[in-house]
Design a protein that fits this description.
mainly alpha
Length: about 190
């Protein structure tokens, strides 16, 4: 099931990365670049929910799709964070926390799957909340202006990305605690 509608949608998130980055190299005014990148991020991020919904609805779930979906999410988030650091809209420390956690938990999940203990590090609500906060913070920071003349997206994006960093650490600790009994059993 390599070329199903949900899998193609997942691939679009990976293809979106150079497009979003490329927007900031276009000879356009900064507010226009910001708006285009924000809209693109929101549209592509929405495919994360939609591809899962369609996979279940159309009965097109697959092991490959289950593998590719979180990889695409992590690529999109990490690339966007790098753009935000480059644009001085996100602190490098926040980006290191978020990217580092994604690498560490991905490696932990892979190892736990190899030893047959993947259930102990299954996705938890805390990880989902972290993802939602990131997915709100990133477009706010990409937009970097006033939304509807009311919301300072840079201020709110900065607050939210720091909240996401705290949730990132919290969720990493949670997953490590869940995996610790298995780790101890294997290391002895």
């Amino acid at each position: 099931m390599f070329w199903t509608i949900p899998t193609i949608m997942t691939w679009t998130r990976i293809i979106a990365i150079p497009l979003i980055v490329g927007v900031f190299y276009l000879p356009l005014s900064e507010p226009v670049r910001n708006l285009i990148a924000t809209v693109m991020f929101v549209v592509f991020a929405a495919t994360d929910w939609l591809d899962g919904f369609l996979a279940r609805r159309l009965n097109q779930t697959s092991a490959f799709g289950a593998f590719l979906d979180p990889v695409a999410d992590k690529f999109l988030v990490c690339a966007s964070l790098l753009v935000l650091v480059y644009l001085h809209r996100a602190d490098v420390f926040v980006a290191l926390i978020i990217v580092g956690r994604e690498i560490a938990i991905s490696a932990l999940r892979e190892w736990m799957a190899q030893i047959g203990a993947s259930r102990s590090v299954a996705v938890h609500m805390l990880g989902k909340v972290k993802t939602v906060v990131q997915m709100i913070a990133i477009p706010f920071l990409l937009y970097d202006g006033r939304l509807l003349d009311l919301i300072d997206t840079n201020l709110w994006g900065t607050v939210l990305i720091w909240i996401a960093a705290v949730l990132t650490i919290w969720s990493m600790v949670y997953y490590l605690q869940k995996a610790l009994p298995e780790i101890r059993a294997r290391v002895r």
